[in-house]
Write a structure and sequence with these properties.
Elements lengths: L6 H5 L2 H6 L10 H22 L6 E4 L4 H6 L13 E5 L6 H9 L2 H4 L3 E5 L8 E5 L10 E5 L2 E4 L5
Parallel strand pairs: 3-5
Antiparallel strand pairs: 1-2, 2-4, 3-4, 5-6
């Protein structure tokens, strides 16, 4: 049992509810989901230690069933489909870019396979994506995705 995260939170989706899609975690992905949430607990503990105060994390997207992933335009090989990825914000720590910059210095220690600063041009409406899986190409491990496309590293826009 994790202190700050649950499978319910990991699978909860406003869009799934709106579209009446069952986004329950399928049998066989429980251990992977648990591992992903352990990574998230480590991230929360790290951000809280840096801030010297509790830093709650809001998961905006965790596990996605194929039907939900398709409905939101997710990638066909998204790690969200495999319960290996989380999109989140931690406003008590800072903007998504501030969170991504901090985490980028500690990807190995925190068990982050991939870190993506998503849509920094949206300011606090952007988000941080983390996955337990390391990408095949090492330069894709820490990237920024903007409307114009991906950039290696953590950048504004």
């Amino acid at each position: 049992m994790l202190r700050n995260f649950s499978i319910k939170e990991f699978t909860d989706s406003v869009k799934a509810k709106e579209l009446r899609i069952d986004n329950s975690l399928p049998e066989g992905l429980e251990d992977i989901a648990e591992s992903t949430l352990q990574m998230m607990q480590g991230i929360r503990d790290h951000l809280s230690a840096v801030k010297d105060d509790e830093v709650p994390i809001t998961i905006t997207s965790g596990y996605r069933c194929p039907k939900l992933n398709k409905a939101i335009g997710g990638g066909l090989v998204s790690d969200h489909l495999k319960a290996m990825a989380v999109d989140f914000r931690a406003p008590a720590f800072g903007t998504p870019i501030e969170v991504a910059r901090e985490l980028s210095k500690h990807v190995d220690a925190l068990g982050i396979g991939q870190l993506i600063n998503e849509y920094p041009e949206r300011g606090s409406d952007g988000w941080v994506h983390v996955s337990t899986r390391k990408p095949v190409k090492a330069f894709n491990r820490v990237i920024t995705i903007t409307q114009a496309g991906p950039i290696v590293g953590v950048h504004k826009a």
